[in-house]
Amino acid sequence: MPDPDQSPQRSTPFSQVPVEIVVSVGRARPRISELLGLERHAVLTLDKRVEDPVELFVGDRLIARGQLIEQTGDKEGQLAVRLTEICETSEALER
């Protein structure tokens, strides 16, 4: 008998529930006085470089890392993420 846990796409009552994925490109830690001084066109420096991987989160759980890409064709100019690393599902969701 096949092990249902080994099936990559088990059908459950929750399999159609949408989740929000947040893509983190970096963090900044300015002082409040610096934030209050920001004006239009100001640049806020992040702690990552353009070529660094982005991180994908569901809630506060890291689920994957990837690379930002720009879509082409009918979605030209839209950002997307090419996944380069998937975190262990059980490890990421059980914490």
TrEMBL record:
One Pfam family named in its UniProt record: FliMN_C
Domain Flagellar motor switch protein FliN-like C-terminal: 15-86
Record carries keyword Glycosyltransferase: no
Keyword match DNA damage: no
GO BP annotations listed: bacterial-type flagellum-dependent cell motility; chemotaxis
Gene Ontology CC: one annotated term: bacterial-type flagellum basal body
InterPro entries from the UniProt entry: FliN-like_C (IPR001543), FliN_T3SS_HrcQb (IPR001172), SpoA-like_sf (IPR036429)
GO MF term (any one): cytoskeletal motor activity
Superkingdom assignment: Bacteria
Sorted UniProt keywords: Cell projection, Cilium, Flagellum
Family: Belongs to the FliN/MopA/SpaO family.
Name of the protein in question: Flagellar motor switch protein FliN/FliY
Taxonomic path: Bacteria, Pseudomonadati, Pseudomonadota, Alphaproteobacteria, Rhodobacterales
